[in-house]
Amino acid sequence: SPAACCVGQEAWKHAIAKAKAMPDPWAEFHLEDIKTEACTRYR
């Protein structure tokens, strides 16, 4: 129903706002300073 859709959208918007407000849990590891390496993905 349209009402349930809007409730779901509002819940997602609230969750996104909460996630953006949180500090980065990986910041202490300084991942941006680690060199990346090429790899081949096999499926």
What's the arrangement of secondary structure elements?
Elements lengths: L1 H20 L22
What does the model show?
This protein has one helix and no strands. With 43 residues, it is an all-alpha fold. It has one domain (2-33). This is (spotted green pufferfish) hypothetical protein.
End-to-end Cα distance: 39 Å
Q: How many separate helices?
A: 1
Largest sheet: none
The level of helicity is: 40-55%
Quick one: overall form?
elongated
Spans of 5+ residues with little confidence (pLDDT < 50)? Answer: none
How many domains would you count in the coordinates? 1
How many runs of DSSP E, i.e. beta strands?
0
Radius of gyration: 18 Å
Integer average pLDDT: 91
Taken as a percent bin, the fraction of beta residues is under 5%
Could you spell the SSE succession in H and E letters?
Answer: H
Helix vs. strand class: mainly alpha
Protein name: (spotted green pufferfish) hypothetical protein
